[in-house]
Amino acid sequence: MPYWALGRLMDLAEDLAGITGVAQPATARRTVVVMAGDHGVAAEGVSKYPVEVTVQMVLNFVRGGAAANAMARVVGARVVVVDMGVAAELPAEAAAAVLHRRVAAGTGNIAQGPAMTREQAIQALEAGIGIAADLDSTTDLFATGEMGIANTTPSSAIVAALCGSSPAEVTGAGTGIDEPQRQHKIAVIERALAVNRPDPNDGLDVVARVGGFEIAGLAGLILGAAARRKPVLIDGFISTAAALIAQALAPDSADAMIAAHQSVEPGHRAALAKLGKLPLLDLGMRLGEGTGATLAMSLVEAAARLLSDGATFEEAAVSQAKQTAAPAVP
Description:
The chain is α/β, with parallel strands linked by helices.
């Protein structure tokens, strides 16, 4: 084809070769890791839904009824669900099917104090790194997903802290709250940042003070995937907040990240800019769960196929472009 005729798809192909270190990267074995955790800040009324929805949705993932499951079936990916800190006990059906890495039964209320201790943040990060190691031999392409009522609130706090933005600039409607509720949510995040004073030069401090167990776990997953030269598709706003933590801890980890889509959450644009990433899709999505990252797997496969299946001019016996002679110098 003419040089770079497929534009950003060629950029993605080049990125895949760089991430994996091979000229024909594999993408067939795909894993969506959905990490779940609850948040004490839900008590501040920042979400449209009660905290019970987290455990209910974990069961829905296990039964294959979530939107993420539907997207995974489209692209032939498996869904791995991890309990990083769900507040309620999981039903037996869910408990038998998820990975158990629970740090605690939900984080602290960040409007009143830190989300977790520094030691708990390390535990969550290391759990994510360990999951990447466990899945490495059966996974070519990772995708991040999450579930946790109120988790756009700590995500906005993380983005504000690491991007130097005001909470008003990076706080959206989340689960669909109205404008007065959004203003209340902004005030809660402002209070959380004032109470906890996360250090923007210390990613571990940021996630410990205003993050979530599933966010820290996803940051660890990203670090683990990057260390094993496996591409990882970053989903929406919450996953991108986790990616910011990973970048803060190990800047080179951003090289393994692929931004799947542009969320309608206002803070997502600032977070992607901090990562230096352009999203592959922009479909007005805001669900999370890994839906956008899973959907983008088809584009990643297409980019990889360009490297493995596409013929060169010589192989296809196609005539090359004519060489234009340089004008004579008078």
